[in-house]
Amino acid sequence: MNFFDATIYGIIQGLTEFLPVSSSGHLALLPHLLTIEDPGVAFDLAMHLGTALAIILYFYRDIIILLRDSFQLLNFKRQLTDGHRSAFYMILATIATGVVAITLKDFAQDYGRNSTFIAINLFLFGALMWASDSLCKQSQEVVLKQKGQAKKAILIGLLQSVALFPGVSRSGITLTTARFMGISREEASKFSFLLSLPLIIGGAILKLPKAFSEQASFDVGTCLFGVFVSFIVGLLTIHFFLKFIKRIGLVPFALYRFAIAIIILLVL
User: Fold this and answer.
1) What is the pTM (predicted TM-score) of this model?
2) Model confidence pLDDT, tens digit, residues 72-131
3) Which of 213, 267, 201, 228 is nearest to 40 (CA)?
4) Residue 176 and residue 181: Cα distance in Å, rounded?
5) Domain residue ranges of the chain, discontinuous segments joined by +
6) CA distances in angstroms from 27 to 12, 40, 41, 179, 184, listed in the order given
């Protein structure tokens, strides 16, 4: 692992963590495409922490408000505001993700990195993304601040856990689920970004024992450089994705997923 390889890893992680094209799928395939040794769980963990820092910096105001409203939910006598409901739905979605993710994580790690399986996931969930964005209307209101939306939040959280399998895409499955429910692209994108933070941090904690036990195939300097690259690229990706998602929609990303799936099947 050299600085060039770390740069490529950082760019791919920073782009694909937030775009609905599957970061884990791309990172699993990079060792084949770059003909380098798979750097392993520890390096993959570091790349994800770089994008987690990007989320924290970009949405720090929203995160502070969510944390404040979450703690205020402990006061049962307090009248609920839109912010309290939004925090409650975020908590429900996070719990739903965590419960299923803990159940599926070992199976996904053992069998999910097969290139054919990744290609199938890219194509299948790309088709669902296309259908959700093309066929479903967009609500003009912020859905996940209204009363009675707990079931939608839980369903988004449950399906987000499927992204443990490379090729599915965490942002892709959450956006697809939200769009099938009529939630607008802008709201779905922001909810997806904020919901990803507990998953990334939780996943990092669960991977720590394996990361410490494995033999690293990189040095600390190249790893830190890759983290820096993923952080910067992640910030730029969040900014421009939120800026242009209303205009470009999700279909171009579905087409990209189809193309990558075909390339994987032909080349690998």
Assistant:
1) 0.86
2) 988 877 778 888 999 999 999 999 998 888 887 777 776 666 788 888 999 999 999 999
3) 213
4) 9
5) 3-267
6) 7, 10, 11, 27, 29
